[in-house]
Amino acid sequence: MTAVAAPSVASLVQSVDWLAIAPPTIAAVVALVVLVADLFLGERRKALLGWVSVAGLAAAALALLPLLDGDRSTFCLQTLKGEQAACSYTADHFTLVIQFLVLAGALLTALLSVTGIKDAKNTPRELPEGEFWFLLLSSAAGAALLPASRDLATLVVALEVASLPAFALVGIKRDDRRSSEAALKFFLSSVTATAVTLLGVSFVYATTGTLHLTRIATALTHVDGQFHTLAQAGVALTLVGFAFKTAAVPFHFWVPDTYVGAPLPVAAYLSVIGKAVGFSGIILVTVVAFPSYADVWGPALAALAALTMTVGNVAALRQQATRAYSAVRLLAWSSVGQAGYLLVPIAAAAYSKDADKAIGSTVAYALMYAAVNLGAFAVAALVARTKPLNRISDYRGLYRSRPLAALVLGFFLLCLAGLPPGIIGLFAKVTVFSAAVDAGLGWLAVVMAVNVVIALYYYLQWTATLFRPAEGEQAVQRIPAPLTAAIGLTAVIGVALSGAPQMVLRFASTGLF
Prior knowledge:
mainly alpha, three-stranded antiparallel sheet
């Protein structure tokens, strides 16, 4: 690598800041512990693996606290004077916010999974506990590594560490053809996107001679005229893999079938953590590595945002309430539409003088979306215990049989729609809308406004269904404690954030980079 061979670098020996890398490291170590413990534990005691995983993810999240006192970097190249030339891992404010989102989301997914695995026991679709927890923790470790990555090699490796276990999680239901097909579609689409991304990375490396993001940003400002087209192609192609993870159109075809085929907690995980991985990768390569090529990625992301929100919301609008798995499909298409909103501020950063503020809007929206979407999936998991086909029509009468669950789900849907009392959803949408207007992207703000109106219809329609009289008697079961905890935590977070929405924006946008 040219950057390594430069005479200004005195040594390739790099010190390791173990505190900085603690969050993803703890998740990875616990994954190995679970995998080994699975070999020695009997069937009756394998439920312990789930609680060990929950504890491991909680410990990884708590490891973020000592990092709040300032930015830390490790795996850095040193100059002859002993100064840091470029680093591969940085724990700055942006990293900590995304790592918190990822680890908290994985923790809530784990709580959902404890119940899901127990329910699947002694059925034809029993889930292998050791493998499940190992794969979930491994994917969470890769997802936590990605926002801290500051070179393209580490970014791609982190993306694949987060993705490869997810393929297996989607197809982990035994003897389920739908699950196998979903995993295959997810895998083939992802491999294609990754191949295109690696081609883009090779183009960027060929024109800049380095993989470190900060050095790429400097090198791209004085690219030789004959390599200008190659650099542009590299910038565009590098974004493809991350756009796939965000489910941006036209890289979204895997989403509905994958969500339906996967266990419900895994679908929830992909809808939140998968998006966090994709968006943090897009932010890093655009704002940190390619700011001088904003004229390339800015219009591309603006077009992707408009197309993604439109396709997602129109497809969600067309879901039939009586179709099998229509509730999960609606959440899947809704997540595609929400991805379009999340892309708006990143596109706006290309035209804005204050890129940090624009990116802060995306991060704030992602925090809101993570809490309420995981909560919606948690209530869907509750309904699926008695109505496994999970149709929207199955939610009729939920208020009569489960009043608190119905009120919570209604609140989550109103947050996603951006209507009171879901103040945090309204605040997040206004913040994103303002980012587009401030950047001069009036046409994109208009497209977003139209899509918000479209989305209102299907969110309100589902909300109204919760309070309609049920057809026949409703089966009522005792709610397991882990599922209750997941629903309760997301509800508390959503209500708390609605009480102080400005706190989210301040937390998300203060000194990101």
